[in-house]
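Hi R.,

As promised on Friday, here is the backbone we talked about, encoded as structure tokens. Could you run it through your design pipeline when you get a chance and send me back a sequence?
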């Protein structure tokens, strides 16, 4: 997050739930640290995935989240989902303080849209994907150029 660059992205079909698409986003990454995600990504499997990649899940719990398994029973063995929910329930202020860093992610999206436009002009879906990918590459190059200039002259 130091550079606020986009290191991974994934295209989905229209109107699909994001809970199923955390794995493709994290696939190229290892030793990822804290993973901050909104409640759309909340699942037992996603918490396990994050831990498997060397990270700590901070996925916003929903109002009805209990920290129990799918059948209302606690897991007998250690489970990252249950641990994450217990951390949230024990000390919500501390948990939210860490989770609040997610606003940096939203700032990156906002910056990308301000600099390069929040729309696509292409009609065909596959060309839209290329257009978006190019916008992300250009955005990352802008960030890189700014960092080089800052290090060189400031």
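Update: got your reply. Pasting your designed sequence below so it's all in one thread:
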């Amino acid at each position: 997050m130091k550079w606020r660059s986009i290191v991974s992205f994934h295209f989905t079909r229209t109107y699909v739930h994001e809970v199923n698409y955390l794995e493709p986003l994290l696939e190229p990454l290892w030793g990822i640290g804290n993973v901050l995600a909104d409640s759309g990504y909340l699942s037992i499997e996603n918490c396990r995935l994050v831990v498997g990649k060397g990270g700590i899940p901070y996925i916003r719990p929903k109002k009805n989240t209990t920290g129990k398994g799918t059948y209302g029973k606690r897991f007998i063995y250690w489970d990252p989902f249950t641990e994450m929910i217990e951390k949230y329930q024990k000390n919500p202020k501390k948990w939210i303080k860490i989770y609040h860093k997610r606003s940096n992610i939203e700032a990156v999206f906002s910056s990308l849209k301000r600099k390069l436009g929040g729309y696509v002009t292409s009609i065909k879906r596959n060309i839209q994907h290329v257009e978006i990918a190019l916008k992300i590459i250009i955005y990352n190059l802008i960030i890189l150029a700014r960092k080089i200039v800052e290090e060189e002259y400031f």
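One thing I noticed while checking it: The mean pLDDT is 87.

Thanks again,
M.
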